[in-house]
Amino acid sequence: MNEMTEQKIGFIGLGKMASAIIKGIISSGFMKKENILGYDVNQEALKIASKNLDITPVSTLEELTAKTSIILIATKPFVIKNVIDEIKDKIRNHLVISILAGVSLKFYEQNLPNTRIVRVMPNTPALVEEGMSAVCKGSFAYDYDAEFVYNMFSKLGRAIYIDEKDIDIVTAISGSGPAFYYYIIEKIAAAGKTLGLDYKTALELSAQTALGAAKMMFKTPDTPEELIRAVTTPGGCTEVGNNVLANSNIEETLFKTIKRTMEKARKLGG
What we know:
The protein has helices at about 1-5, 15-25, 45-55, 60-65, 80-85, 105-110, 145-155, 165-175, 175-195, 200-220, 225-230, 235-245, 250-270; strands spanning about 10, 35-40, 55, 70-75, 95-100, 115-120, 130-135, 155-160. The protein is elongated and about 70 Å long. Strands 3-2-1-4-5-6-7-8 form an eight-stranded mixed beta sheet, sandwiched between helices. Helix 8 crosses helix 13 (about 250-270) and helix 9 (about 175-195) crosses helix 10. By secondary structure, it is an alpha/beta fold.
């Protein structure tokens, strides 16, 4: 593991998620900035990102693959075929990490035969080091490859190992999930505004309460049901609110939200 952190890693695509990963692994000391190279098809974006991140820019994929032993693909999914066509003859025992939604391990292994592939489904809270990442190992990757990737993404929040067959469900729950929580947080704040509270205040109350509740889930051994009971006094305010939720169709709505998102992710994956 220590040897891998000393190797050079090349990022293909330097958007927000790639930038979050780079910032996280540098600030945590997981990898040195001198060992991180970046490429982006947009040369202006490459110049800006490499300067902001203080990493080494390279102008071609040929140079990137020649100077690194680990490649992390962070492009848009729809350009992956072009990227693979450019690098397939240049991969030489590289570890390839992909964070692309809908692009399967099978696709990579068909187009990059015998290559060590690890696929990751991260999410945008990685930008504030509160990400949730799911890691799945390809057929030719070693256990230490997966461990290296797991440790890398743990620097951005939390990471778990999964089987790729579950990745579409993971995409729905944690990949797309932040958007669903933003919606709920905003609607609670909007209710506060409608009832007379300043919106900025209501939003702060709602967001911090969501953050605190989530942290309680990790900091205590209690189940969600036990945590609900701890907040709820019989005949009190919370009980009234709980009854409204219990008598609504919110459970059905959330299930439908996750199910349809999962189905869309499955279609993307072909």
